[in-house]
Design brief:
This protein folds into two domains: 238 residues, Metallo-beta-lactamase, Chain A (4-Layer Sandwich); 144 residues, Rossmann fold (3-Layer(aba) Sandwich), CATH 3.40.50.360. The chain contains twelve helices and 22 strands. The strands form five sheets. Strands 1-2-7-8-9-10-11 form a seven-stranded mixed β-sheet. Strand 7 and strand 8 form a beta hairpin.
């Protein structure tokens, strides 16, 4: 295995994992992934950008060895320390005994817990530079994109941005460069939605820090190297991270599932009450929409009402499948409440409230529970439930 030259003195030395189908237990990777690591050789010093997932270190060392003796590496830069970036660090350090490990304060703290031993380390700060001799590494703090330790590194002489997880994709192709690998737009967007979107505000902050840089190439931690039209990928992040809500409007999403139509009746009457309260309303049957669409609607709404009948003393499975994917980061403090019909027990509403609280939603009113078929009084109660919730949302600053 040989290194692939990215630009003069800069090499891709990472690892390919074409057979990976699930990343971090929960994320589908139908096109596999890459663990990108980069070697930068200056006139005086040499730096390695991150290592690879545990088990792939032999591939990394073999590629490095095609360019330089690994023992000659002076620095290992960690823009991020998630184990797919750092898992092999213990074995790699044995091959690079003089290397000093550089990262943000959070990164060094995390690596200390990963290694559980002392090591040669240095904390770098935003704007700090490292001169390798004809190649300068400028560190840019971009926390929570998507971990608190994250930073990017800019190499001005070559106009390269080492972007960490940002602008990456789980897409494995040995051709490596975006102008050679074919269409990976689906994987690029899916990666954003699954990993970056919950941190979209931080993505915008990061974009503001790089907007004035001359960037000819983006080297992310996963997927193709972006040397053709790199700014199109940055602009996509800005577009996707900018929430386009109507000026001055407040919205509530009502999501429900219904076995026999009783909870559906409640949902429709709750929507009437919400509209009476002056908020925008969208009512969605959970079985008629993808979880990705529902999650996005929840993220963009100002309030969430969720409904399920009780089945075997619980809410029904589609509710839990959706709530397993809802972001506790984006929705922290957002008003929410639960409703549903029941036959002989009625626990669903209570359990949905508990899960919403775990996700950091704010339960603003007691849940609405109706035994079997809603009667006229129950339907009026549902409308009032909607009006009360609309008042909370409308007055939330």
């Amino acid at each position: 295995m040989k290194a692939i030259e990215v630009k003069h003195g800069i090499y891709w030395v990472g690892a390919l994992n074409p057979d990976l189908r699930i990343f971090d237990v929960i994320m589908e990777t139908k096109s596999g992934t890459t663990y990108n690591s980069y070697l930068v050789r200056g006139e005086n010093k040499t730096a390695l950008f991150e290592v690879v997932k545990d088990g792939f270190e032999n591939e990394l060392i073999e590629r490095i060895s095609s360019v330089i003796d690994p023992e000659a590496i002076d620095y290992i830069i960690f823009d991020h320390t998630e184990p797919d970036h750092s898992g092999s660090i213990q074995n790699v350090l044995l091959k690079m005994p003089k290397a000093q490990v550089l990262g943000s304060q959070a990164a060094i703290t995390f690596l200390s817990q990963i290694l559980n031993t002392d090591f040669n380390k240095r904390i770098v700060k935003h704007g700090e530079e490292l001169d390798l001799g004809g190649k300068t590494l400028r560190f840019l703090s971009t926390p929570f994109l998507h971990w608190p330790d994250t930073m990017m590194t800019y190499l001005p002489e070559d106009k390269i941005l080492f972007s960490c997880d940002a602008f990456g994709s789980h897409f494995c192709n040995q051709e490596l460069f975006n102008d050679l690998v074919g269409d990976f737009s689906e994987e690029f967007k899916f990666y954003y939605d699954a990993i970056i979107y919950p941190f979209s505000n931080y993505a915008l902050e990061a974009a503001s820090k790089i907007k004035d840089l001359e960037i000819d190439m983006i080297c992310p931690s996963h997927g193709p190297i972006l040397r053709q039209d790199p700014w199109s990928y940055i602009n996509s992040y800005v577009d996707w991270s900018t929430r386009e809500m109507e000026e001055g409007s407040k919205s509530v999403i009502v999501i429900y599932t219904s076995n026999y139509g009783y909870t559906a009746r409640l949902a429709k009457e709750i929507a009437v009450g919400l509209a009476d309260g002056g908020v925008k309303v969208e009512v969605m049957d959970i079985l008629e929409h993808s979880k990705a669409d529902l999650r996005k609607k929840i993220d963009l709404a100002d309030g969430l009402l969720i409904g399920s009948p009780t089945f075997n003393r619980d809410a029904i499975p589609p509710i839990w499948e959706l709530l397993a994917e809802v972001s506790a980061i984006i929705n922290k403090g957002k008003p929410a409440a639960a409703f549903g019909s029941y036959g002989w027990s009625g626990e669903a509403v209570k359990y949905m409230e508990q899960r919403l609280q775990q996700l950091q939603f704010k339960i603003t009113q007691p849940g609405l529970r109706v035994n079997f078929v809603p009667n006229a009084d129950n339907l009026e109660e549902a409308r009032n439930f909607g009006r009360e919730f609309a008042s909370v949302v409308a007055n939330k600053t």
